[in-house]
Design a protein that fits this description.
The chain is an alpha/beta fold. It has helices spanning 2-27, 33-44, 48-52, 92-107, 122-132, 145-150, 178-191; strands spanning 57-58, 73-74, 81-87, 112-117, 138-140, 158-163, 166-171. The protein starts with a helix and ends with a helix. InterPro entries: Redoxin (IPR013740), Thioredoxin-like_sf (IPR036249), Thioredoxin_CS (IPR017937), Thioredoxin_domain (IPR013766), Thioredoxin_ResA/DsbE_sf (IPR050553).
Length: 192
């Protein structure tokens, strides 16, 4: 009986300490506004040295959604068919798939093939493109605007095929080869 009382007292003390620690954590002062502003500014643009190595994005909306380019934009005319690969710098499957998407772009100049980096950390996205050797213009989506406006699932990678700015097909999967990706685009365009 005495052991039960001691055990209950110890449990109560541990629980009290945990509650007090949680309260201190929740009630602590938030970071100063200047620090938050600095973090926001840091995520708004890519380091100029990193941006210099990125492909330029065609100006205007991508699949009907306005997004800034991860690098710079240019006046390249968008083609009727647009292939958009949604990726993030921390995504393992994206590491394997992005070079395939870049190869699709090289093999099909008649299509606009671009990426959308779905993470607020622009610099990590730019470094990632360089690391995987993906020569792919990519737009920056800090807040999930692209996925939200097109009703995409919350998984990546996702590949979207659009014709004349309207999404005709979405593939929430990782493609294993350029031929598989090309076949998916052709099937989607055939249905348009």
């Amino acid at each position: 009986m005495r052991r039960m009382v001691i055990g209950s007292v110890v449990a109560a003390v541990v629980l009290t300490i945990a509650v007090v620690a949680a309260a201190v954590f929740v009630l602590r002062d938030p970071a100063p506004a200047e620090d938050n502003a600095a973090e926001q500014r840091a995520s708004e643009s890519v380091d100029p040295q990193l941006a210099a190595g990125l492909k330029r994005c065609p100006a205007g909306p991508v699949a009907g959604v306005e997004l800034p380019c991860l690098g710079e934009t240019d006046d390249t005319e968008k083609k009727s068919v647009t292939v958009v690969n949604v990726w993030a710098w921390w995504c393992g499957p994206c590491r394997d798939e992005l070079p395939l998407v870049a190869e699709l772009r090289a093999q099909h100049p008649e299509w606009t093939v671009v990426g959308v980096h779905a993470d607020p950390n622009r610099n990590s996205g730019a470094v990632f493109l360089s690391e995987v050797g993906a020569d792919l213009p990519s737009y920056q989506d800090d807040s999930g605007t692209f996925a939200g406006q097109l009703g995409l699932p919350g998984v990546i990678p996702v590949t979207v095929v659009a014709v004349d700015g309207e999404m005709v097909k979405m593939y929430p999967k990782t493609f294993e080869s350029v031929a598989e990706l090309e076949g998916a685009v052709r099937a989607a365009v055939g249905k348009a």
